Give the backbone structure.
Amino acid sequence: MAKILIKGGRVISPAQKIDETCDILIDKGKIAAIGKGLDGKGAEMIDASGKVVTPGLIDIHVHLRDPGLEYKEDIVTGTLSAVTGGFTAVACMPNTKPVNDNQTVTTYIMNKAAKQGHCRVFPIASITKGLDGESMTEMGELKELGVCAVSDDGKPVSNPQLMRRAMEYARPFGITIISHAEDLDLVGSGVMNDGPVATELGLKGIPWVAEDAATAREVMLAEFTGAHLHVAHVSTKGSIEIVRQAKKRGVNVTCEAAPHHFTLTDEAVRGYNTNAKMNPPLRSAEDREAVRQGIADGTVDAIATDHAPHHIDEKNVEFNLAMNGIVGLETALPLTLSLVEDGLIDLPKAVALLTSGPAAVLGLPLGQLKEGDAADLTVIDPGLEWTVDAKKLASKSKNTPFDGWLMKGAALYTIVAGKIAYKRD
Amino acid sequence: MSFKHKHILGIEQMAKEDIQLILDTADAFKEINKRDIKKVPTLRGKTIINAFFEASTRTRLSFEIAGKRLSADTVNISGSTSSVVKGETLEDTAKNIEAMAPDIIVIRHGHSGAPHYLAERVGCSIVNAGDGAHEHPSQALLDLLTMRDHKGRIEGLEVAIVGDITHSRVARSDIYALTRMGAKVRLCGPGTMLPPGIERLGNVKVFTSMREAIKDADVVMMLRIQLERQSNIMLPSLREYARFYGLNPTNVKLAKPDAIIMHPGPMNRGVEISSLVADGVQNVILDQVENGVAVRMALLYLVSGVESMQTL
């Protein structure tokens, strides 16, 4: 495997408190050296002066739709979308067809990703068999095979007794429980955030209390059982506060925020825009601000996209009938960098939210830059301006609310295990 | 003045002048409905499709009669007989209809935003005949015409709208229309049926007490409790609903003595309105229905872009 020398970039690795201009030499798929004036003889040279070099970005919440829903996305296109966005590792949710609730599906995903994937893939298994909310998966064995967490994601476990038992069972295995915290009875048949915009559009609302009530329950169960709870895509002011207070009490809880929730509000639904339909829904300006504050004060551990590809036919319908979710891998980096532009966080913090933060949440041995470690790196031009063209996304699906947006910041090189997996033209 | 809208998607997009023009045009059409031969050649050669994807008797009939009295060729399709039940998408259905070159599609649909969806995808005019809980513009316009007939004006009227505001497209369109025309709107309903932020739609005050809401009102409009849509967690019982939010001979006296009583129909007698009130001297409910034809004639005429009314 070829040697690569990344020369003169601003190297940021928040977990190690590294933020300095230096070179990185990659050899045999590993980081051979980090330092100034490294000898690049025989190495491919990447001039990173004026650029930022970080550990490879990690997205712990994506839907790769493979197996079974390959008309939306598959492991090849999903990981191509990931590396295009600067990500070197993704964790994929289990709501495939069949559900990733057994070792056959887990093994399929891992094998296909290893052979054909453009980046690392860490499968998340389901908490319950077939996402039925009734009986637990063989999560001990699945953990041994390599799943990084368990989650019923979009079909949250509603039975509190089952969730309690799942946490009690998962804890000694060191398995993280990821919860899409929503009380489905309170969600009802809602299709967007409950509030003035829903009233105006005559669409049924999903109230914030549907998320807050469920987050509170999950946090209390985590407190009771001692299990590690990770709350997915926190979108409300109340949920942020619940997690913030739980962390103060020492509860083993982490959470993530999605770029669309800290960027958009339910105003984006106007015109019955189905690319602004997702779950949890885009919320009020007050909620968005609370999520941003949660990011700034450390309540939020990671930024994760909830990359949810859907076919055009599933979005080009009446709003009520449209599927929930948007693609996010290729827009997450600039949207996160916009938080730096807005003065909310500094650049190392933004990098942490996309690297060491998510790695720590799932205990992945990634998110740092150490000599001898596998060379997963992203070279970022934080100043590069570009316009999103949904048609040109690497993802198989084009369902983004950011089509036509001017973005600032992009990955120039995405390097996975010492190999250039993506190079921006 | 001329009408600049190609589609009638909702009152939200309409200016005061638009509403004024529609009402004045409807006034002029009223006379046709009283003739022995109720037909003028105004829209001869125009094709109007009434695409009703949700059950409707009154509105569909009203649009059909309106089209026929203007000599348009009107064709009806309904949800149960359409290809929707065979799994065709709304876009494909619309494109197929469009291929047969209609001039206007009048659409009633259970999903909010369906007419807007169509307007973005087909070339002909779209008239919204009610979409989900969003808007019902022709109903609001006939309500205003009826108020103007009886009160001589709309500006300054105190209009109380009582009932299930959350699920009511009529309420939303009425709020926009009345506010634009300078009326004041009072809304009242059970706590489960008052949606958040409704007061942002216009000049609206929200009441939880029916007595306060209708006190000294010029117009009391009772909304239908949609029995078929309510699950039992919205209301304890229709009996209790009638007690707190029903209009009856006792509380109707709180409104102005010359107040008019309206209802978009179909009525649930004994629930939101007692028969004594529904059939009482103050009721103008059938005037609303009568005006519905004239208002829909005006809408079809105005969106069709026919230049003059000389043919009347």
User: Anything to note?
Assistant: Chain B is about 35% helix and 15% strand. Strands of chain B lie at 47-52, 73-78, 104-109, 125-131, 158-162, 184-188, 204-207, 219-222, 260-262.
